[in-house]
């Protein structure tokens, strides 16, 4: 077997995040108006189908590590890639809400598993010096998905819902085939650890929990921008849907840059200090709409939060990798992903209820800023904590 390079591992991990999150989750949101206009679903049903995908993500995050213990990493990645791709083909059929619900739930589960298993599969098999660059490649998939959701998917939706899903499925088929046959089916074993020094048992738990706590709080802080940003600009600020969608494209441009910037920052200052810096900047970026509704303020907020959504994932994953041994990395990253998923689900529903009570999105941005400030403080604690 030829040696698989860090570059190849990073690209294969990037395919996992692109298909599992970038396409399976983010591509659905801009399709909701097209699904309703085509008469496939009512607005209520379309929203329900988005929520059930989030439920699937929770299930996948909670069960991914156990699945690999039973079936192995390669089998889980291969099966999840296949099921996610099949779900795209299945969603091209107007077969009713239960059919769609099943496949949206299924790709939510497999999408989470691709992130929980795919990222550590790449990062735990490269040297410490190669982790920053590999991590950037792995999580570029999320940025690509956000970018495509704001540009290509709406354009495809004008052609038709079925055509959009078929196009996504064909792209996902080609990428999955490359990732499997070029890298994942011959995934090398984990590097051996030196059991003589107890490295596998003496983990810096306080630093790990501070990093995981920061990641969970970040999930609360990013909800207003990822769920309500376009509607806030379009209706509450009265600038119209076209303008709101334009700011979402800016958000997507930022998301494309996020993993690359995160990798460069981590290479310079290491992952944990970089995470603290990123969350501090993110706190300021989310507070910008509270300060001003000028187009420069909204544009900068769009770009920075878009950049820092995948950047935070990249830096958290790298921080967990730097604090754990290779054989524990997947489990600990799974815990972090589960914390994020739980906080994201609770805050999404809670903020939706809050909007009904307040009649304004502005209080939600205040909540997000408070959560992000706490996340930054937790990340600082994790960064300054000395580890063995």
TrEMBL record:
SUPFAM superfamilies with a match to the protein in the record: MFS general substrate transporter
Pfam families (alphabetical): MFS_4
InterPro entries: MFS_4, MFS_trans_sf
Keyword annotations from UniProtKB, A to Z: Membrane, Transmembrane, Transmembrane helix
TM stretches of this protein: 9-26, 46-64, 71-90, 102-123, 135-157, 163-184, 205-227, 247-267, 274-292, 298-320, 332-352, 364-384
Source organism superkingdom: Bacteria
Organism listed in the record: Salinisphaera dokdonensis CL-ES53
Record-given protein name: Major facilitator family transporter
Organism phylogeny: Bacteria, Pseudomonadati, Pseudomonadota, Gammaproteobacteria, Salinisphaerales
């Amino acid at each position: 077997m030829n040696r698989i390079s860090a570059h190849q591992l990073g690209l294969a991990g990037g395919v996992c995040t692109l298909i599992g999150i970038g396409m399976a989750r983010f591509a659905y949101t801009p399709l909701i108006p097209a699904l309703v206009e085509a008469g496939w679903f009512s607005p209520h049903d379309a929203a329900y189908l988005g929520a059930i995908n989030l439920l699937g993500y929770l299930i996948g995050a909670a069960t991914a590590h156990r699945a690999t213990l039973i079936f192995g990493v390669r089998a889980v990645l291969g099966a999840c890639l296949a099921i996610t791709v099949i779900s795209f083909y299945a969603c091209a059929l107007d077969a009713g809400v239960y059919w769609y619900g099943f496949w949206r739930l299924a790709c939510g589960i497999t999408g989470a598993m691709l992130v929980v298993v795919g990222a550590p599969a790449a990062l735990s098999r490269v040297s410490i010096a190669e982790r920053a660059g590999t991590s950037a490649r792995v999580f570029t998939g999320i940025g690509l998905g956000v970018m495509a959701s704001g540009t290509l998917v709406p354009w495809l939706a004008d052609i038709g819902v079925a055509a959009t899903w078929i196009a996504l499925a064909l792209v996902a088929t080609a990428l999955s085939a490359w990732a499997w046959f070029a890298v994942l089916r011959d995934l090398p074993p984990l590097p051996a650890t030196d059991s003589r020094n107890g490295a596998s048992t003496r983990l810096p738990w306080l630093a790990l929990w501070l990093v995981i706590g920061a990641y969970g709080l970040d999930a609360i802080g990013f909800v207003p921008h990822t769920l309500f940003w376009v509607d806030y600009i379009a209706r509450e600020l009265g600038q119209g849907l076209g303008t709101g969608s334009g700011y979402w494209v800016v958000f997507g441009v930022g998301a494309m840059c996020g993993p690359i910037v995160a990798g460069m920052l981590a290479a310079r200052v290491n992952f944990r200090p970089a995470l603290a810096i990123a969350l501090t900047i993110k706190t300021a970026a989310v507070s910008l709409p509270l300060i001003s509704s000028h187009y420069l303020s909204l544009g900068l907020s769009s770009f920075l939060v878009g950049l820092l959504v995948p950047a935070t994932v990249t830096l958290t994953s790298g921080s967990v990798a730097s604090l754990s041994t290779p054989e524990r990395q997947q489990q600990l990253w799974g815990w972090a992903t589960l914390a994020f998923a739980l906080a994201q689900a609770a805050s999404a529903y809670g903020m939706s209820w809050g909007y009904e009570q307040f009649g304004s999105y502005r209080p939600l941005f205040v909540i997000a800023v408070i959560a992000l400030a706490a996340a930054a403080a937790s990340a600082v604690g994790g960064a300054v904590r000395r580890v063995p």
